[in-house]
Amino acid sequence: MNILVSACLIGIGCRYDGKSVVNPDAMKLLERYTVIPYCPEVYGGLPTPRIPAEIRNNKVWTADGRDVTPQFAKGAKEALRLAKLYDCQFAVLKERSPSCGTGFIYDGTFTGTLTDDDGLTAKLLKAAGIRVIGESEIPSVL
Ligand code: SF4
User: Fold this and answer.
1) Which residue among 12, 15, 55, 123 is best mutated to probe the pocket of ligand 1, counting the most ligand atoms within 8 A of its Cβ?
2) Partners of 106 in the beta sheet?
Protein backbone atom coordinates (compact mmCIF):
# COMPACT_ATOMS: atom_id res chain seq x y z
CA MET A 1 0.00 0.00 0.00
CA ASN A 2 1.32 3.47 -0.88
CA ILE A 3 1.29 6.21 1.73
CA LEU A 4 2.37 9.84 1.57
CA VAL A 5 4.70 10.77 4.45
CA SER A 6 6.14 14.12 5.52
CA ALA A 7 9.74 13.81 4.34
CA CYS A 8 11.14 15.34 7.54
CA LEU A 9 9.72 12.44 9.58
CA ILE A 10 12.13 10.02 7.91
CA GLY A 11 15.13 12.30 8.39
CA ILE A 12 15.20 14.30 5.16
CA GLY A 13 16.71 17.71 6.00
CA CYS A 14 13.82 19.78 4.68
CA ARG A 15 12.70 21.29 8.00
CA TYR A 16 12.58 25.07 8.29
CA ASP A 17 15.78 24.95 10.38
CA GLY A 18 17.52 22.64 7.92
CA LYS A 19 18.06 20.00 10.59
CA SER A 20 17.52 16.28 10.08
CA VAL A 21 15.37 14.68 12.78
CA VAL A 22 14.36 11.05 12.40
CA ASN A 23 11.09 9.84 13.91
CA PRO A 24 11.61 6.18 14.87
CA ASP A 25 7.94 5.28 14.40
CA ALA A 26 7.93 6.81 10.91
CA MET A 27 10.97 4.70 10.00
CA LYS A 28 8.93 1.59 10.86
CA LEU A 29 6.43 2.59 8.17
CA LEU A 30 9.14 1.81 5.58
CA GLU A 31 9.03 -1.86 6.54
CA ARG A 32 5.29 -2.14 6.05
CA TYR A 33 4.28 0.37 3.37
CA THR A 34 5.58 1.93 0.18
CA VAL A 35 6.40 5.38 1.50
CA ILE A 36 6.20 8.41 -0.80
CA PRO A 37 8.23 11.12 1.02
CA TYR A 38 7.06 14.65 0.39
CA CYS A 39 7.68 18.17 1.71
CA PRO A 40 5.00 20.67 0.65
CA GLU A 41 7.04 23.71 1.60
CA VAL A 42 10.03 22.69 -0.51
CA TYR A 43 7.84 21.64 -3.46
CA GLY A 44 5.97 24.91 -3.05
CA GLY A 45 9.20 26.72 -3.88
CA LEU A 46 10.56 27.72 -0.47
CA PRO A 47 14.25 27.39 0.44
CA THR A 48 15.79 25.32 3.26
CA PRO A 49 16.51 26.65 5.80
CA ARG A 50 13.67 29.18 5.79
CA ILE A 51 11.97 31.61 8.15
CA PRO A 52 9.27 29.77 10.13
CA ALA A 53 5.68 30.49 9.16
CA GLU A 54 2.26 30.21 10.78
CA ILE A 55 -1.35 30.60 9.62
CA ARG A 56 -3.26 33.72 10.64
CA ASN A 57 -6.57 34.92 9.15
CA ASN A 58 -6.48 32.19 6.49
CA LYS A 59 -3.09 33.28 5.18
CA VAL A 60 0.39 31.97 5.88
CA TRP A 61 2.88 34.50 7.26
CA THR A 62 6.56 34.17 8.00
CA ALA A 63 7.81 35.32 11.40
CA ASP A 64 9.20 38.42 9.68
CA GLY A 65 5.85 39.34 8.11
CA ARG A 66 6.05 37.97 4.56
CA ASP A 67 2.94 36.43 2.98
CA VAL A 68 3.92 32.96 1.75
CA THR A 69 0.39 31.68 1.15
CA PRO A 70 0.99 31.06 -2.59
CA GLN A 71 3.98 28.79 -1.89
CA PHE A 72 2.09 26.85 0.78
CA ALA A 73 -0.95 26.51 -1.50
CA LYS A 74 1.22 25.23 -4.35
CA GLY A 75 2.86 22.69 -2.05
CA ALA A 76 -0.56 21.45 -0.94
CA LYS A 77 -1.78 21.15 -4.53
CA GLU A 78 1.26 19.13 -5.56
CA ALA A 79 0.81 16.88 -2.52
CA LEU A 80 -2.67 16.02 -3.69
CA ARG A 81 -1.40 15.42 -7.23
CA LEU A 82 1.25 13.01 -5.93
CA ALA A 83 -1.17 11.25 -3.58
CA LYS A 84 -3.54 10.65 -6.49
CA LEU A 85 -0.77 9.56 -8.89
CA TYR A 86 0.37 6.92 -6.41
CA ASP A 87 -3.12 6.08 -5.19
CA CYS A 88 -2.14 6.75 -1.57
CA GLN A 89 -4.67 5.31 0.87
CA PHE A 90 -3.58 7.58 3.68
CA ALA A 91 -0.97 10.14 4.67
CA VAL A 92 1.23 10.44 7.76
CA LEU A 93 2.08 14.09 8.28
CA LYS A 94 4.15 16.06 10.79
CA GLU A 95 2.06 17.45 13.60
CA ARG A 96 1.64 21.19 14.29
CA SER A 97 3.13 22.34 10.95
CA PRO A 98 1.28 25.05 8.98
CA SER A 99 1.50 22.68 5.98
CA CYS A 100 1.39 19.18 7.45
CA GLY A 101 -0.30 19.63 10.83
CA THR A 102 -3.54 17.74 11.38
CA GLY A 103 -6.00 18.71 14.10
CA PHE A 104 -3.74 21.23 15.82
CA ILE A 105 -1.41 23.88 14.44
CA TYR A 106 0.30 26.96 15.84
CA ASP A 107 -2.08 29.89 16.03
CA GLY A 108 -0.20 32.54 14.06
CA THR A 109 1.16 34.45 17.04
CA PHE A 110 4.59 32.73 17.05
CA THR A 111 4.19 32.13 20.79
CA GLY A 112 4.02 28.33 20.66
CA THR A 113 0.24 28.44 21.18
CA LEU A 114 -1.81 25.75 19.45
CA THR A 115 -5.25 26.09 17.89
CA ASP A 116 -7.71 23.56 16.41
CA ASP A 117 -7.02 23.55 12.69
CA ASP A 118 -5.18 21.75 9.90
CA GLY A 119 -2.19 22.86 7.86
CA LEU A 120 -2.89 23.65 4.21
CA THR A 121 -1.69 20.29 2.86
CA ALA A 122 -3.46 18.23 5.51
CA LYS A 123 -6.67 20.17 4.84
CA LEU A 124 -6.55 19.63 1.08
CA LEU A 125 -5.79 15.92 1.37
CA LYS A 126 -8.65 15.45 3.86
CA ALA A 127 -11.05 17.32 1.59
CA ALA A 128 -10.15 14.86 -1.17
CA GLY A 129 -11.06 11.93 1.08
CA ILE A 130 -7.54 10.86 2.02
CA ARG A 131 -7.11 9.79 5.64
CA VAL A 132 -4.49 11.94 7.37
CA ILE A 133 -2.81 11.05 10.65
CA GLY A 134 0.00 12.66 12.64
CA GLU A 135 3.19 10.94 13.77
CA SER A 136 1.85 10.27 17.28
CA GLU A 137 -0.82 8.05 15.71
CA ILE A 138 1.63 5.89 13.72
CA PRO A 139 1.46 2.98 16.21
CA SER A 140 -2.22 2.59 15.31
CA VAL A 141 -1.34 1.69 11.69
CA LEU A 142 1.73 -0.49 12.34
FE1 SF4 B 1 8.18 18.48 7.30
FE2 SF4 B 1 5.88 19.21 6.26
FE3 SF4 B 1 7.52 21.05 7.29
FE4 SF4 B 1 8.17 19.83 5.01
S5 SF4 B 1 6.41 21.16 5.35
S6 SF4 B 1 9.50 20.18 6.74
S7 SF4 B 1 7.37 17.78 5.34
S8 SF4 B 1 6.47 19.41 8.40
Assistant:
1) 15
2) 114
